Amino acid sequence: MTPVHDTKQINKGLWIGLLGIVIFSATLPLTKLAVGSSSAPQLSPWFVTFGRAAVAGVLSVIYLLLQYTRGEKHVPSRNEWGLLAFTALGVVVGFPLFMSLALLYVPSTHGSVVTGLLPLATAMVAALWFRQQPSTAFWGCAVLGTLLVLAFMVLRSQDATGHFSLHLADVFLLLAMASAAFGYIGGARLTPSLGAERVICWVLVMSLPVTVPMAFLSAPADVYAIQAASWWAFAYVAVFSMWLGFFAWYRGLALGGAVRVSQVQLVQPFLSLLFAVPLLGEPLDAVTLCFGVAVIATVFVGKKMPVGLPAAVINQGEK
Prior knowledge:
The chain is 76% helix and 1% strand. It has 319 residues and is an all-alpha fold. It has one domain. It has a two-stranded antiparallel sheet with strand order 1-2. The radius of gyration is 19 Å and the shape is globular. The two termini are 14 Å apart. Residues 12-148, 169-300 form the EamA domain. The chain crosses the membrane at residues 12-30, 50-69, 81-106, 112-130, 137-155, 167-187, 199-219, 231-250, 286-302.
């Protein structure tokens, strides 16, 4: 295999991964629109979490049945079910729940900047899981982006007395980032054998016995009391954020290598900031914009740094 071919494979993974990130970028502002705020709540975080997974799970059942009729009978092996469950805990429950809880108390622009931590978290998990060897310079860029995010969180935490601390919402955001990182890598590990589309579909289908009952239990008592915009936002996070976005994201991680493609997530905070302004009317102040741009800038340096990609990952991605 020539180096040129390796570069093409990586670039393809980066572009496909970027498509998934563009889809995911609207998740934060639309989740904020769906849940409202602590003073004016709309859909509960629990309903947004389990309801969106239930809707996407039903769509997944339809997709898998259509694949079955076409002769695509890729059923997970006995050893893969455990990893599917692990992935479900991260992307079906952990990330959306902690994110929804956080957005009750902070603007989506705040959450958007904090998502800059996700590339480092994903890269750390990927490096350990796939035994990859990122260079020192690569880690330096990732750590720099993380320090910028942490500085932003602390700066925004200043209270009337001038004290700095981490809010509970920031703790929820950090838990959301950790959950997503583990879920992303679990899915990337399964993609070569199952395919990107079937990974998220099987994750959602196996979650249905939990997500459907929980969605009914947490559904609003009066559906007409919820604003129409909140329902439209819920529809987006159910169909795009919870389902179609993963089609592109998992495939990109598998093709280009999870450590390197995970750094594409550094553009997500800026895109989320741009979405938040027209969707929510949230102000985009200079401090938030500057931190967002500074974090994003690290991706253009970090993606040029050498990362050791195992031959097995590249070979599997070509199948």
